Amino acid sequence: MKEKIIETSIELFDRKGFKETSVQEIVEAIGVTKGAFYYYFKSKEELLKDICISYIEDLLEQQQRILQDSEKSCTEKLYEIVYMLIRNIKARRKSARIFFREMRHLHEDHLQEIKAKRRAFRQHYQQLIEAGIARGEFKPTLTPDMITFGILGITNWSYYWFQPDGEISEEALTDIYVDLILNGIKNRESLKEK
Fold this sequence. Notes:
Blueprint: H1 2-16, H2 23-30, H3 34-40, H4 44-67, H5 74-91, H6 93-102, H7 108-134, H8 144-156, H9 158-161, H10 170-183, H11 188-193
Helix pairs in contact: 1-2, 1-6, 4-5, 4-6, 4-7, 5-7, 5-10, 7-8
């Protein structure tokens, strides 16, 4: 029943928004009483926190698997993390939208755990950039924290507009992003002409 409440809430929060969705609407959609809801969750906000925690913990687990692969270079790991984030938009689009859009409705005590996990995800990413610089894969002049924020900004915001079933696949979008991250948009041929 708990999973059914979560699944139904994700649908409703995504469609209507967290604030606009009532506990009554959630239980009516499932066909249970409010008592069933409150058996599993103290409040609608606790439910939102659980949805957000589940989303970020899943990303952290996937990120760790990628980072722990000693056979891959930092560049390959960067590609895989970008791809993982884009792929998750297809697999968990509604949860991603809720995570980025509705988290602002949580009180500080509920936000602390989520912020800590989000910070860990960012720090792991930054450590990858730093390792890539140390190994000579990335430019030594980079500022790792700013590069990390930039990469996260590019990939995370994709949940808002990217249509995985549209004209560009998640693989193609990953290629575009990683090329942009590693090579920029300046035409190297035009540099040679000057």
